[in-house]
Amino acid sequence: MNPRIVNGSRTHLVNQLIFFDEQYTDFIHHYFPEQGTKRANMEKMIRKYAGMLETLLEQSDTDLAQSLNSVTLLGSRAKVVYEEDGYEDSFTVVFPTEIDPDQNRISFLSPIGKQLLFAAAGDRMILETPVGRHDVRIEDVKFAYIGGFSKE
Prior knowledge:
With 152 residues, this protein is α+β, with helices and mostly antiparallel strands. Helix content is 42%, strand content 23%. The chain is built from four helices and five strands; from the N terminus they run H-H-H-E-E-E-H-E-E. Helix 1 (3-31) packs antiparallel against helix 2 and helix 1 (3-31) crosses helix 3. InterPro entries: Tscrpt_elong_fac_GreA/B_C.
């Protein structure tokens, strides 16, 4: 991977970490105003995600480039293959303010986004969608985040 791309990706991951550090309370209150299981689960997921970012950012550029193309992060495109028929679909996991269904940009807060976050290339899983449960394989993961951040 091009060193400029790795540096840009590293900067973007740092910005995500800063976002969750500085905007965490506002973010949680906005999307999960009520205390409860959903909010607690999301808080746990965000802590896990921030920990993963910290670990990734400690890696060398070579290792980081490899990780960016193996695990689904915010800004990753995950190519999913449905085992029953071989159909392929790709989803880019993004912040909720940057969803675009026409481009398959889904929020990490959505049911599918929550399932894909942390998924690695080669993983097999049961993906629960509005139309049912599907055996899928994560064919490919590419980090290509080009969006920004919003405090909303």
